[in-house]
C-alpha cells in the first residue's frame, strides 16, 4: 500500500509542475467536445439575421469567445487543481481525463 501511495504522491508532484499545460489540455478538449453544439446553437439563434451580421457574430463567438475563454479559464482551472493535495491530485486528474474520454466516446 505504501508503494501505491508513493506512486500517487510522485505523480501528483510531477503533475503539479505542469498544471497549466494539463489545464490547457482539459479546456481544449472540452471545447472540441462541446464546441460543435455551441456553434449549432449560435447558428440557430442568429439564423434570421443578415448574412453580414451572421458572419460577424459567428466569427466573434468563435475567435474572440473561444480564445478569451481558453486564455482566462485555463489559469482558473490550474489554480483550482492546485488546491488538491499530493495524495488527491493524480487520482483527480486521472478521473477528469477518464470522464472526458467517456464523453468523447459517447459523441
Features:
107 residues, mainly alpha, 85% helix, 0% strand
Summarize the topology.
Layout: H1 2-16, H2 19-45, H3 51-81, H4 89-106
Entry summary:
With 107 residues, the protein is mostly helical.
Structural class: mainly alpha
Radius of gyration: 18 Å
Overall shape: it is elongated
Task: Give a short account of the largest sheet.
Answer: none
Note the run of SSEs as H and E.
HHHH
Count of DSSP helices? 4
Overall residue-averaged pLDDT value: 92
User: Which band does the percent of strand residues land in?
Assistant: under 5%
Please explain how this structure is put together.
The chain is mainly alpha-helical and 107 residues long. It has one domain. Helices cover 85% and strands 0% of the residues. It is built from 4 helices and no strands. Helix 2 packs antiparallel against helix 3 and helix 2 runs parallel beside helix 4. The radius of gyration is 18 Å and the shape is elongated. The mean pLDDT is 92.
Amino acid at each position: 500500500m505504501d508503494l501505491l501511495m508513493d506512486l500517487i504522491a510522485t505523480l501528483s508532484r510531477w503533475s503539479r509542475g505542469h498544471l497549466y499545460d494539463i489545464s490547457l489540455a482539459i479546456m481544449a478538449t472540452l471545447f472540441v467536445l462541446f464546441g460543435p453544439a455551441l456553434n449549432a446553437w449560435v447558428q440557430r439563434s442568429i439564423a434570421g439575421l443578415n448574412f453580414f451580421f451572421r458572419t460577424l457574430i459567428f466569427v466573434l463567438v468563435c475567435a474572440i469567445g473561444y480564445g478569451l475563454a481558453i486564455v482566462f479559464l485555463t489559469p482558473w482551472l490550474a489554480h483550482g487543481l492546485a488546491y488538491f493535495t499530493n495524495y488527491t491530485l493524480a487520482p483527480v486528474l486521472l478521473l477528469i481525463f477518464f470522464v472526458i474520454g467517456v464523453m468523447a466516446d459517447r459523441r
